[in-house]
Write a structure and sequence with these properties.
The chain has about 60 residues and is mainly α. Helices cover about 30% and strands about 0% of the residues.
Length: about 60
């Protein structure tokens, strides 16, 4: 995802567009159910988005 998104899921070159699903996790997650990991990554990203982006999108 490094060429498309940053660690908070911001899509490069698309203001206000975020990826906050399993696509944000690098590698494969075929060994187990990753739903809790995906939820944790999305929650972490939302904290950063709210803290840094909320005033720039309006």
């Amino acid at each position: 995802m490094g060429t498309v998104c940053d660690l908070e899921g911001r899509v490069q070159g698309q203001r206000g567009l975020y990826v906050l699903d399993g696509a944000l996790i690098p590698g494969t997650t075929g060994a187990c159910n990753p739903s809790m990991t995906i939820a944790a990554v999305a929650e972490r990203a939302m904290d950063a988005i709210i803290a840094h982006d909320i005033d720039t999108l309006i």
